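Severity: low
Component: inverse-folding endpoint
Summary: output formatting inconsistent between runs
Steps to reproduce: submit the following structure tokens with default settings.
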């Protein structure tokens, strides 16, 4: 083929704006990207794109912004069936008296599969193309991920006491190893260890976790410093803060994903700087459970990479990353006392490029760059609430709602077209959710009657 001859692509997408989310590229007006064999080409100015490619199909989006698919860096997808089950309670009351008893009564692979399917539909509808999941029965979640075609990091649930998934921590490690063997060649699924929290994992288990990590070479995602009570309990029992325990256990490095981190002092900051751990910020869940505030702007000033997550629908109560972005941006300003804190483009980076980096996917997704996997979304900014559009990033973070997501692609495959989910039966999902709600309500009523 002559050097200047156009090349064949499956799809050319021409948009009013393209937000590549690459540090070297600003927002681009009237640009296009192409999809070929599940990967991205471009971006180019539209006139140049038309010369560069022969497209089987051209999608013209005159009022839209194209951006990378959103990365929800922390979720408990199977818990979507517990949305609204136990609201307006502090974390430990919520866990000990409501969530863990409900899990003991209801959790099985079928429940987790149904909850995960509901969660994935919600996430795809609202522009999320990658999510990190930490929940029971990850084998069932893996099956649903394979069916729906979303990208995921599955964090296997590791905890010292018995759960519906594993009898103890050691059993959980063995099941993790089996799941790694099963999913190692899956193009959309990565695995991580998911130890619940320092207060549910003892020192012996932390040692076993370090040994397993060295053997399996997996990242670790863990709830850390979620509440002040957690830190105080650790000081009483161990004489040190939880992050210090994890540091001394040899677990903290650039592949450790610390979720929440609402309680941070100078000692913690020094450990974070030394180890280069990833932080996952879940502002709405933290606010709803009154857990505290992650000092995002102070951490950003140190160069710490911070991703964004929704947490589960049982404590949020939605999986809408656009909602999460707005909350994160506003909260950062309020906590820091600086209206310039966490500007719109930095907030978008947390939900795309920085989230991908935190999950170890930064060279594959999270940016619209040539050769990256074609995980991208289009958002329609031609709505009253986003008019006029002076700055697309500002409109997306501060004014847009997720119903304006019009198109979603994962690995080049369409998952949402003109606002309608592909290959997902929404009405069947609603019927399933209603049936699960009735069953949980019946069990609760029986318990209250005894």
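Observed output (run 2 of 3):
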């Amino acid at each position: 083929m002559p050097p200047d001859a156009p090349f064949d692509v499956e799809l050319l997408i021409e948009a009013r704006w393209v937000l590549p989310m690459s540090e070297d590229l600003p927002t681009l007006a009237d640009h296009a990207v192409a999809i070929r064999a599940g990967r991205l080409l471009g971006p180019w100015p539209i006139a140049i794109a038309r010369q560069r490619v022969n497209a089987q199909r051209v999608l013209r989006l005159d009022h839209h912004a194209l951006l990378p698919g959103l990365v929800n860096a922390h979720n408990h997808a199977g818990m979507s069936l517990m949305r609204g089950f136990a609201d307006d309670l502090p974390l430990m009351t919520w866990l000990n008296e409501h969530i863990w008893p409900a899990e003991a009564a209801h959790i099985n692979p079928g429940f987790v599969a149904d909850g995960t399917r509901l969660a994935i539909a919600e996430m795809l509808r609202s522009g999320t193309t990658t999510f990190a999941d930490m929940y029971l029965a990850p084998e069932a979640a893996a099956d649903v991920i394979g069916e729906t075609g979303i990208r995921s990091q599955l964090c296997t649930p590791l905890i010292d006491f018995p759960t519906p998934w594993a009898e103890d921590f050691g059993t959980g490690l063995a099941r993790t190893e089996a799941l790694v063997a099963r999913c190692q060649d899956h193009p959309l699924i990565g695995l991580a260890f998911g130890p619940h929290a320092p207060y549910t994992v003892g020192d012996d288990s932390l040692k076993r976790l370090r040994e397993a990590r060295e053997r399996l070479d997996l990242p670790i995602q863990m709830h850390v410093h979620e509440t002040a009570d957690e830190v105080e309990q650790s000081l009483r029992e161990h004489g040190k803060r939880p992050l210090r325990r994890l540091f001394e256990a040899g677990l903290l490095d650039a592949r450790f994903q610390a979720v929440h981190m609402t309680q941070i002092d100078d000692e913690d900051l020094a450990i974070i700087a030394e180890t280069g751990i990833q932080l996952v910020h879940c502002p709405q869940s933290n606010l709803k459970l009154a857990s505290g505030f992650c000092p995002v702007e102070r951490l950003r000033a140190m160069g710490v990479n911070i991703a964004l997550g929704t947490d589960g629908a049982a404590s949020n109560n939605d999986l809408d990353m656009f909602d999460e972005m707005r909350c994160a941006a506003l909260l950062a300003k309020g906590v820091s006392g600086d209206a310039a804190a966490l500007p719109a483009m930095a907030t978008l980076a947390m939900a795309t490029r920085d989230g991908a980096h935190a999950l170890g996917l930064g060279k594959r997704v999270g940016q619209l760059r040539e050769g990256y996997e074609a995980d991208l979304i289009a958002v329609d900014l031609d709505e009253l609430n986003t008019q006029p559009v002076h700055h697309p990033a500002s409109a997306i973070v501060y004014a847009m709602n997720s119903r304006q997501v019009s198109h979603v692609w994962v690995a080049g495959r369409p998952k949402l077209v003109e606002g309608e989910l592909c290959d997902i039966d929404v009405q069947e999902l609603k019927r399933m959710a209603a049936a699960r709600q009735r069953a949980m309500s019946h069990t609760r009523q029986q318990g209250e009657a005894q």
